[in-house]
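Submission checklist for the structure archive. All mandatory fields must be present; incomplete records are returned to the submitter.

[x] Identifier: BZIP domain-containing protein
[x] Organism: Castilleja foliolosa
[x] Residue count: 178
[x] Sequence attached
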Amino acid sequence: MWTSSSSSMSLSPPSPYTATAVAANPRTMEEVWKDINLAADLRHSSSRGMIFQDFFARDPPPAGGGGVPSPPPPPLQLPTMLTLSSLLLQQQQQHPPIPSPERHSGGDRKHKRMIKNRESAARSRARKQAYTNELELEVAHLLEENAKLKKQQQQLYNAAAAENRKRKPLHRTSSAPF
């Protein structure tokens, strides 16, 4: 309810809980929450199971068209976050949400990322194994080539030694007399 003084308006709705009342009556959070929910249930008992679209779509009450002026309407209480959250909670209990793929996208993203990481690790291991196999083949080929070259070197050495043995030592056959 909005109150107005002589020329200024108070922008805050009146609260049934004043600072002195709260300080004088310490209550637990559960008691306060129960009182809020009970008050919300009593206020909204006529619109049970109604959503905002239904509330705004329904026909307005007929206007009194007689000569008798109608009494002033009761003060309009704007819905607070507590009443809205309690209504939302009631609606969720009555109509459980349908699981959609978007709701589980966080878990799906984690699962997909985990799978991608595993596949990447498998590819990395495969590359490493292929590189290791290639190096082992190259080592085996180089060992064979080294053995072949050593054998050739030994054959050349033996051939050179045999040729040196066939030559006769140099002797002077005719030399100048001194």
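[x] Structure attached
Curator remark: The radius of gyration is 50 Å. Confidence is low (pLDDT under 50) at residues 3-10.
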